[in-house]
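Handout, section 4.2: multi-component inputs.
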Amino acid sequence: MLRLLCLLLCFAPACFAENREAMQGDFSHEECIACHQATEPQLVADWQQSAHASVEPLALCTSCHGRDHQGAAARSRGNDSCIDCHGGATSPVVHSYTTSKHGIIMQLEQAGYDWKLPLRQANYRAPGCAYCHMHDGNHLTAKAEPLKPAEADMDRITGSCLSCHSTRYINRLNDNAVDMIEIARMKVREARQLVDAYGDAQNTAAAAQLASLITQTEKHLRNVYLGAFHQSPDYQWWHGQPALDGDLLRIKGVIDNMQSGKSDVEK
Amino acid sequence: MRLAYIWITLLILGILIPAGFWYVDWSKSGDGAGLYSRDWLPEAVFAYWNPDDFYQSVETVVGKFEGEECVACHRDMSPGIVKDWQASRHAQAEPKVYCSACHGSDHQNLRLPTPDICATCHTTQHDQFMAEKRYGFPSHALAMERALDARHFVDKPKAEVTACLQCHSVATKCDSCHSRHKFSAAEARRPEACITCHSGPPHPDDETYFNSAHGQLYLQQGQDWDWSRPLQKGNYPAPTCAYCHMTAGQHQVADKSIWKFGIQQINPLSSGNVVKRQQWIELCSDCHEAEWSAQQLSALDRERKLAWSKLDEAEVLLKGLRADDLLSPTIHQRPPYPGDDAHTMLQRERIGFFEGQASAFYNVSPIERDYFDMWYFSNLGAYKGAAHGDASFVSKGHQAMDQQLEDIRQKVTDIRAAGKTRADKTDPENIWLQGEYTEYNREHN
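Output:
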């Protein structure tokens, strides 16, 4: 604590300097916090509440901004700050975005964007990860609760759509997404009910097959969710709904085999 | 006597032909769209992908606005689209092409621009685009009707099949490729412009192209190429999607299509296809010797022949099970084929392309679904790999097909060994017809 206080005192003049971009030098995460706690307490508090500050591995200031104060804000705004920790280019959460129109335009144009501009008011032709999830630099990242974004978070994210899209369009897309995900959930519930009703722990081979199919349904449900909110038709559909259909009917197939096995024995 | 034959025939035709036209008109006049429009209701969001059928203007703003008036208000309301427009050629032209030129000026009666609105100025591109229809499916210009008339689209809950229209709207809006409101030709020339739709298991065009020698060159150097130049010989060091499939910027993708997406077996040496082969060879001659290009096409034919020999074997095995009534669930124990109902006459399990199996995702038995995965995912992946020059996808696809075929053979043996006990068994609680989604689907389309 004493160390932090000392640090704060050391940097205090610089913290309050008018042109903060002009600050020079490399800083550690603790040093960033010490200074910004004084200059932007809300920002630090937001970060502390976010998943970035609580879920390992933590995303510290330096994880996204780097250590060099010069250009630290601009450096963090691009998708490169996010992708490595969020599973890399082929993870569904990233891939569903990069194949969307937003992701495509970003990929083609990002080299020409002025990354010094704040993440608001359509300062960027296509939204990157942070434009929606940390709109206007809000460090309380809009959390994606597993498959169920909180309403307040959804409002924040959809708010970021409105610089380019009409409210009616966004509302309709949202309503549609909610219904689409609910349909996917119906398939998962149907699958679970079948396994609960007919699963047989004694039959280890069948139980293993059913368990692996249930895992598949969860993966495919998540794909529908990612596809709907990242606007990827491919994740909504091929990685999502028909894949769930396949899981469901294969679960029924395993149960059908178990049942007919039983009736053979009975004979 | 002979005269009577003629009269009667003419009379019957005179009734049947108008009745046929009337029936098609009637079936298209429902609240949905397409041939089965009476069987489904649209989601509100469909308005944006099929504006002709479903778009209705907002009515909250009253008045007529034109030119700078729209811009003045929307600069605050929706700055993104104004910035886009300002960066577009529409805003550089003299006179400028303002919002109202495409959307109309009456704010209570705005249009969502469809290709025919763009055709007001872009006549050549629109004519080329529409002329694509003569090549049949698959095609951009016919994509919307393909989706609307697909049995599974009609059958499934509409919120589930939204993704279909997102991609198939390539027929109904030019901004699928020239994203709004910049409408950049340069953007549409880049391979990335295609991959929002041309990706995923049945059409991994993105992966197979980027893995190919052409794609590798693009990935390394593409950032520095001058994308304002037309897609012609000498302008690009490597071909992109549009360079080959939309030669010289011709707004058609179906004109040289031989294998038709790989979903069906065709004769690659039919007289029509021989002409198309010549067109491909000529296109490749921008960089390659004719002989070399011809060999590539033959290699693709051989790959396809091998793929279809595997698919045919699987299809024959499944049809054998069907003939012996060994598929479980039977046609009467499973949800009806999309568009059919329990009373449809002569129902039977649909197997393969010509019977329309591609519309059945869960109205099938597991072994039929195994065949679908083999046909639609492994086979099509191998096809795209072979056509785009990505050997890794060819071998991956064929290995998967071999595995799936072996699996199907084994299951067929098991089913035959078990005999008819299963199919004959009357299931008191038919799991195939029950369940939350299964029942919801039956009631909602």
